[in-house]
Amino acid sequence: MTARRIVMALAAPVSAFTFSVLISSAVLIAVGTNPIDAWAEMLSFGMRLETLVETSNRATPLYLAGIAVAVGFRMNLFNIGVEGQYTIAALLAASAGAAVSLPAPLHILMIIIVAMFVGSLFSGVAGYLKVTRGVHEVISTIMLNAIAWAMVGYLMRTWLADPNDTTLNLKTREIAESGRFPNLNGLLQTFTRDIKGGRELGGFIIVAAVVGIIFHLYLTRTRSGYDLRITGLNPFAAEASGVNPKATVIRAMLLSGAVAGLIGLPEILGDDFKYDLSFTKGLGFAGIAVALIGRNHPAGIAIGALLFGWLDSAAPILDVRGDAPREIVSILQGVVVLSAVVAYEVVSRVRQAQEARDAAIATSGPLPANDNQANTEVDR
Amino acid sequence: MNPVPLKESRVLRWTIAILGLVLVLSVTQELARPETNDLISAGTAGSTLRRAVPILLAGLGGIWAERAGVVNIGLEGMMILGTWFGAWGALEFGPWWGIVIGIAGGAAGGLLHAVATVGFGVDHIISGVAINILAPGITRFLSREIFATQTGGGITQSPRVESVGHVDFPFLSGGEVFGWASPDTFGWIADRGWFLVSDLCAVASGVTSNVSWATLLALALVPGTVYLLWRTPFGLRVRSCGEHPVAADSLGVNVYRMKYAAVIISGGMAGFGGAFIAIEQTGIYREAQTQGRGFIGLATVIFGNWQPLGAFLGSILFGFADALQLRDRTAVHALLLLTGVAVGLVALRALRRSQPVGAAVLLLISALVLWWYSVTESVMSELPPVTPHIATLLVLVFATSRLRMPAADGMRYRKGQE
Predict the structure, then answer these.
(1) Looking at CA atoms only, how far is residue A380 from chain B in angstroms?
(2) Which positions 256-285 of A are in contact with B (Cβ < 8 Å)?
(3) Which residues in chain B are closer than 8 Å to A325, comparing Cβ atoms?
(4) For chain A: N or C, fewer Cβ within 10 A?
(5) Model confidence pLDDT, tens digit, residues B311-365
(6) pLDDT at A376
(7) What number is the ipTM of this complex?
(8) Structural domain B33-164+211-327, CATH architecture
(9) Which residues of B touch A151 (CB under 8 A)?
(10) Which phi and psi (to 5°) does residue B211 adopt?
C-alpha cells in the first residue's frame, strides 16, 4: 500500500519532467541541433561548484516565492499578487534599511520585519476586499500588481532615490555594513574547494530553509494551520466544524504577503544592498510555477526551486559552446509547469478511483466489486 | 407588435448617454482650455480607438471562454503568442496573413488551455497561469531562432512590420471614391469651433479617418459575438455550458465540444489582439509589448458584466486613459478635472435617488479630486496607466451586486457528474 502511494506520488513529477525533456528535445531536433549534446553539456557544466552556488542563489528567492504562493494555494486562495508584493516590499525595506543604523543583527531584523509588514499590508488589501466585498482575489491581486508597480515607479522617482546619484539608473541609498547578510563561502569552502570567479553563496538560503520548516510545522502542528488546510480541502466541512472562513482568508493572505516580502531580500541584503532599476522582476510568477510543480508542499517546492534555479544557472553554457540556444530552457520550464499540473490531476483522479474501488471492496465484503459500478461512483 | 415606449428605448438611452458624455467632455475642455486642447479632439479619439482595440479583443476573448464556463487567465499568454506569430506571419506572407497567423497562434494557446481544463479537468486559474508562463518562453525561443538571424531583428524584437492599411470614410472624413476625394464633412464642422457640435464632429472625425481595416474587423466582432452567442443555436449551447453544464448535457449538448470551441475562439480573439498590437499599433514585435493588456481585457469582462457591449465600453474607457497620457501629459492633469466633474454628476444622481450616504461619499471624492486639480500643476506620470486597474477595483468594490457572471463559471465539469 505505502509502496504504491510512493510510486503514485513520484509518477506525476517524473513523467511531467520526462515529457518536458522529450518535447524540448523534439524542438531542438526541429531547429537542427543535437539534444543529447546539449543536455550533456548542461549536465557537466551544471555539476561545477560555481554553478551549484549560483543554483542555490537563484533557488533561494524562488523557494520563498513558492512558499508565499503555496500558503494561499493550500486553502484554494490564488495570490497572483506575489509579484507586486515583493517588489514594493523590497523597495521600502531597502529604503528603511538605508535610513537607519543599528547593530548588525537588529539592523537585518528590522529590514526583514519592514519587508514582511509591507508585503502583508498589500496582500491584506486583497484579503480584506474578498471577505468584505466578495471581490475574487485573482482579479484584485492582478490589479494590485499594476498599482504596486506604479507606486514603486513613483516612489523611486520622487522620494526614495538617492539624491547624490548622478547616473540615470535610479537607486536607493546603500544599506550600511551592519544591515548586510553574511555569505556562507567560509562554511562551504571548509567542505569543498575555493569558489572561483568571485561568487558568493548567499546566506539567505538559511532563512528560506527556516521559512520552509516553519511553514510545514504551521500546517501540520498548529490549530491555525489545520484550519487553513481543511478550509482548502472542504470549506463547507471546515465551516461546519467551527472554522471562521473570513478570518482564515485574511490570515492566509497576510501570511502569504509576509513571506512574499522576503523574496527580494536575498538580493537587497546579500548582493546589491540597494533597490535599483535592475532589481530582478518576475520572481512572483516564477514562484507560482515552482509552487505548482512542488504541489504546495515545502519539500516539493524546494525541488521545484532547485530545478528552476539549476536550469537557469546551467543554461548559459549552451550559448558559450554554441550547442543550442539557451532559450530552450524557458520552453522546458514552461512545459514542465503545464505538464506537471496535468499529470497531478490525472494521478489524483487515478488515486481517487483506486481508493473508491478499495472502499467498495472493503464495504461490500469479499464479493468482487463490479468494475462498472465502481467507475460510475468514482466519476462523480 | 407593440411600439417600444420611448422612455425604455435602448437607442434613445444610448444616444442620451453618449451626448451627455460629450457634453461633460466639452465643458471640461472649455474649463481646461489654456492648459490643453487634447481632451476632446480628433487625434485623441482616433488614438483612443487604436488603443482600445487590443483590450476589446482580449475582453471578447474572455467573454467567449467565460460564457462557456471556463475562466481564461491565460489571455495574456495567448496575446503574447499573437504578437509573435502576427509579426512573423506579417514578415513572411504580408500583414493580413500576419493577422490570420496571429489568430492561429492565440487559438493554439486556447486549445492548450482547453485540453488542460476541459480535457484533463485542471483548475482553470492554474492552467491559465501555466500558459502565461509558457508563452513568453516559446516566443523568446522562437525570436532567438528566427528574428535574431534577420536584419533589424534580435532576440527581443522583430524587424519592422508593414500594416494592413488604413481608410478614410468617404463623405464623412474625406475618403476617396474611385479616385475622387469626397468632402471631409466631420473635419469641416470640427474646425468651426461651435460648442458641443464641433467637439462631437471632432470625435466622429477621429474615429472615421485613417482607420485601420483591422480595427474595423475587430469592431465588427462586437455585434458578431452578440449575434453568435445570443442569436444562434450554437451560442445558446455555448452559454448553457457556462450556466448549467449538467442540464445542457441532459438536453444532448456536447458540453466538452462546446467548451473546446469557445476556449479556442477565446484564444483566437486574444491572438488577434496581440497581432493587432504588433502589426497595427507598433509595427514591430517587441518582447513583453502586451504590457498586461490581456489582464486589462479580463477586467473589461467584469466591468462589462460579461456582455460584449459592456466590454467594448470598458475598453474605450481604458483606451482613452492610455491615449491621453501618450499624446499629451498636461491633458492627464485635466483628466482630474474631468473625473471630479463626472463623480460630482454621479453624486447628484445618487442624491436624486435618495441615497444620501452614497451621495455624500461621492461628493467628498469629487471635492477632493477637484482640490487636487486646483493645487497641482501636473499629475504623476505613473497614475494614468493604472487608472484601468484602479477603476476595476472600484467597480468590483462598489458594484458587485449589479454584476452577474455565468453561474458555472470557473467550475470543473466532468461528464456524468451530478
Answers:
(1) 5
(2) 285
(3) 141, 144-145
(4) N
(5) 998 898 888 877 877 766 667 777 778 888 888 888 888 788 777 887 888 888 8
(6) 43
(7) 0.84
(8) Orthogonal Bundle (1.10)
(9) 382
(10) -95, 135
Residue with the three cell numbers 489545520: A226
Cα(A84)–Cα(A144) distance, integer angstroms: 7
Q: Is residue A276 part of a domain?
A: yes
Residue of A nearest to B300 (CA): A139
Out of B135, B299, B415, whose CB is closest to A143? B299
- In chain A, the number of structural domains is 1
Bridge partners (DSSP) of residue A276 are A171
For every residue of B27-59, DSSP letters joined together read HHHHHTTTT-S-SS-HHHHHHHHHHHHHHHHHH
Q: Which amino acid is at B129?
A: V
Cβ atoms B389, B299 nearer than 8 A:
yes
Three-class DSSP category at B3: coil
Report DSSP state, residue B279: I
**Chain A residues with beta carbon closer than 8 angstroms to that of B116:** 338, 341-342
Provide the shortest C-alpha distance from residue A35 to chain B (in Å): 15
Q: Which residues pair with B212 in a beta bridge?
A: B166
Enumerate residues 6+ apart whose C-beta is below 8 A from A259: A64, A67, A68, A71, A116, A119, A211, A215
Cα–Cα nearest to B324, from B39, B30, B42, B18: B39
Interface of A with B in 139-158 (CB under 8 A): 139-140, 142-144, 146-147, 149-151, 153-154, 157-158
Domain hosting A209: range is 62-292
As a whole number of angstroms, the distance between CA B384 and CA B371 comes to 18
Q: What percent of chain B has pLDDT over 70?
A: 94
Residue pairs between chains A and B whose CB atoms are closer than 8 Å: 131
Q: Which residues contact B88 (CB under 8 A, 6 or more apart)?
A: B98, B101, B142, B146, B147, B158, B285
Give residue B161's Cα distance to chain centre.
Answer: 23
CA–CA dist B41, B47 (Å, integer): 10
pLDDT at B388: 78
A256 is written with which cell numbers?
Answer: 502569504
Residue A271 CB-density burial (10 A; 0-12 exposed, 13-18 middle, 19+ buried): middle
| A27 in contact with B, Cβ within 8 Å | yes
pLDDT of residue A375: 44
Q: Is the pLDDT of residue B408 over 90?
A: no
CB-CB neighbours of B373 under 10 Å: 20
Which 3 state secondary structure label does DSSP give B57? Answer: helix
Q: Is B177 helix (H, G, I), strand (E, B) or coil?
A: strand
Task: Return the pLDDT at B390.
Answer: 84
Question: In angstroms, rounded to a whole number, what is the distance separating the alpha carbons of residues B357 and B173?
Answer: 47
Cell numbers for A134, please give them. 466578495
The residues spanned by each domain of chain B are 33-164+211-327, 169-209, 330-401
How is residue A129 written as a grid cell?
476586499
Residue type for A76, please?
N
Measured CA to CA, the distance from residue A136 to residue A337 in angstroms comes to 24
Residue A339 lies in a domain: no
pLDDT, one tens digit per residue, over A297-328 is: 999 999 999 999 999 999 888 888 777 888 88
Question: From the CA of A338, how many Å to the nearest CA of chain B?
Answer: 5
Look at residues B113, B90, B114 and name the one whose alpha carbon lies nearest to residue B102.
B90
The contacts of residue A220 (CB under 8 Å, 6+ apart) are: none
- pLDDT for position B43: 80
